[in-house]
Design goal:
47% helix; 249 residues; Rossmann fold; 7-stranded parallel beta sheet; alpha/beta; 7 strands
Amino acid sequence: MNLSGNTVLITGGSSGIGYALAEAFLAASSQVIICARDQERLLDARAQHPSLHTWVCDISSEESRKNMVDWVADRFPGLNILVNNAGIQRDIDFTHGIDDFQNGENEIRTNLEAAIVLCGLVIPVLARNKRAAIVNVSSGLGFVPSARMPVYSASKAGLHAYSMAIRKQLSPVGIKVFEIVPPAVDTELNPLGRAKRGHFKAGLSAATFAGSVMKQLEDDRFEIGYGMTEGFINASRAELDRHFESMNA
């Protein structure tokens, strides 16, 4: 991927990995549009980087997704990169039934369905432009699931499978599909779950991770890991099983 001269749409771009990627693409002289649910955070992001373009969007909402894509297609017809980064993560305990799953945001809708639908909505725009690409942000937990976060893990495993499938499907029309597989990164993902575990704080900053991602995008690495997750990508089933037992001990 050529990192400069692009027009990039990043979902969940006001904080964490999404914001770090937005900063990295801006630094590479690309035009960047970010969306998020929180208007105040978008305003803060634009205050830090006045060249950022922002749009308030709840990607779990069909109407909100469509409105955003219509605006982007009209305002930025040269859009050539979509980064599906927005996601939510929850600890969910099924040992007592369905209540814990139902009493909270739906990870399948936000993490998997929204990414699939956004790809479908944006592909006609991407296909008209050169150097088109989709970048899906999955997770190491899509390869080695967490028993504490079963639905999140399943949603990211689904996104991994989807990324593989459309990479093959879109290759003839010139759209590249990348998958970013983050390890634990210091973001605000799953604040309730982290609080239960004593305010867990990952040592890896979003900016450091994004820097590594950009180098690997430039090298056209279609599955991008870091540290442990780089090992997950190339691991055997037996190796993944050992990681699973160790992580969930």
